[in-house]
Amino acid sequence: MPFLAYIDPGSGSMLLQVLLAGVLAVPFFFRRVISDGLHRIRGNRDGTKRGEGGEDTTDR
Amino acid sequence: MVDPASFRDPSGFVFRRDGSLYRQVQASGAADWTAFRSTGLYERLAADRLIVEHHDQPLELAAVSGSVAVIRPRMIDVISYPYEWSFSQLKEAALLTLELQARALDAGMRLKDASAYNIQLDAGRPILIDSLSFELAAPTEPWPAYRQFCEHFLAPLALIAHRDARCGLMLREFIDGIPLELAARLLPGRTRLNLGLSAHIHLHAGAQRRAANEPPPAAGAQKPERRISETGQRALLDSLRRTVEGLRWQPSSHWSEYASTTSYSDAATASKGEIVREMLASVGGRSAWDVGANTGVYSAMAADAGYRVVAWDQDAASVDAHWRRVRGDGNPAILPLICDLANPSPAIGWALEERSSFLNRGEPDVMLALALVHHLAIGNNVPLPGVARLFARMAPRAIVEFVPKEDPMTRRLLAARRDIFEHYTIDGFREAFGGPFRIVREATVADSPRTIFLLERR
């Protein structure tokens, strides 16, 4: 499917985004695993998953 | 009448009829609009005040044929633009944009653009005004608005934080956001050591440069299909958020300290406050513009008197301090914005109709110009009749302070220059302002040579 957006995403920007998404996914994934694990160990007081910045990082 | 700024996205447009604002969804945007409603994304965003709420309207109200829906969004009090926002305002708008994209991904959709002009400051917080900004997309498709986000938000924020607050004004020149290769050249070299800025600005500029040097694709060639992982999509968003949150600006300016370094005695301050309060009460309006508001002492007075106030000031540091204060107090009645009255925001964009000039942003019931006229008349050489004419274009009533030459603040302006202002006297003021205005009242500020006028447009 070609991009539906009406704005020009820019071919250089798209290429960079694909690269960055690949690189950033690794630390992001592990950060999430670690912070989820920590919360499971500590017990979940308010029933929501909390990210390290204090914000709700629940995603599916 | 179709809004002249509403032409970029073919899936719909904004139009005005009988003073109300409507948005029409075209057939090409039908599937996205249905999904936006059926996934509950709209309701969730509206409930959290992240998007402006709207009412569905009958299709007969459509401005042109081919419409699948017509809505009437709530109108925002005063439209403002990113080049009138201080660092904190732009940063909050950036974080809202990322939050909207995250929420859209949760609903199987995405934000299809990341224009700063889709955000407005409303009742003390940023809000999305473009109800048609969401489209269906697989989470594995790259975000088409990535580049726009970097140009509209990240580049100006980084330039303000790492170079100079006045870089925010560059948005007035670059309506599509600051070109990344320009931002990369202007940012200090040390920003390459910041992971986020290095990736989203410096590398990004390089990627754009390389892509521009590629030969064009063959005629009829398939567009390249690119995929990212869903985790990668979230990681990119998370990286942008961290990069924006990591940007800080420590404003310090002569103006934001102005209120505490002025020469007024306590008696003069009290007397001035009393006069302004009385005049505001006698006007009995609902909206006020405080021009040259500094950090907002008199804006607060107007807000206390029941006015909704726009507090304009040319100094980014004062506006930022003012915004953070009203934000902290949870006072939604005051909106601080950046404007230099000697050179206010022009009309810009396509046919000069996309973004309105400062003088076409509506009219308040009353304007306050306290300790301002001497800066325009002496600091900027504008003859008093010129000042009076501009004020009369801005508001039907004005509360204006005259600061004569013997006042220490005016003496400071004249300290290093020849006094070429023979008409800058209280009689000269009465004559100049008596043209476009009727002088309703004049009150002398106790323990000071200053006079405050209440004026009504003829």
Short description:
Helix content of chain A is 53%, strand content 0%.
Write the layout of secondary structure elements.
The complex is a heterodimer of chains A (60) and B (458).
Chain A: H1 11-42
Chain B: E1 12-17, E2 20-26, H1 30-38, H2 41-47, E3 54-57, E4 67-73, H3 87-106, E5 109-111, E6 119-122, E7 125-128, E8 134-136, H4 146-162, H5 180-186, H6 195-213, H7 230-246, H8 258-261, H9 266-283, E9 287-291, H10 297-304, E10 308-313, H11 316-329, E11 334-338, E12 366-369, H12 373-379, H13 384-394, E13 397-402, H14 408-414, H15 426-433, E14 437-444, E15 451-457
Parallel strand pairs in B: 9-10, 9-12, 10-11, 12-13
Antiparallel strand pairs in B: 1-2, 2-4, 3-4, 5-8, 6-7, 13-15, 14-15
Helix pairs in contact in B: 3-4, 3-7, 4-5, 4-6, 5-6, 6-7, 13-15
Mind explaining what this structure looks like?
The complex is a heterodimer of chains A (60) and B (458). With 60 residues, chain A is mostly helical. Chain A is built from one helix and no strands. Chain A has one helix at 11-42. The radius of gyration of chain A is 17 Å and the shape is elongated. The two termini of chain A are 23 Å apart. Chain B has 458 residues and is an alpha/beta fold. Chain B has three domains: 12-73, no CATH class; 82-212 and 225-246; 258-457, 3-Layer(aba) Sandwich (Rossmann fold). Chain B contains 15 helices and 15 strands. Chain B has helices spanning 30-38, 41-47, 87-106, 146-162, 180-186, 195-213, 230-246, 258-261, 266-283, 297-304, 316-329, 373-379, 384-394, 408-414, 426-433; strands at residues 12-17, 20-26, 54-57, 67-73, 109-111, 119-122, 125-128, 134-136, 287-291, 308-313, 334-338, 366-369, 397-402, 437-444, 451-457. In chain B, α11 links the parallel β10 and β11 (334-338). The A-B interface holds A 1-18, 20-22, 24-25, 27-29, 53, 59-60 and B 8-11, 102, 105-106, 112-113, 135, 137-138, 141-148, 150, 199-200, 203-204, 207-212, 214, 223-229, 231-236, 238-239, 245.
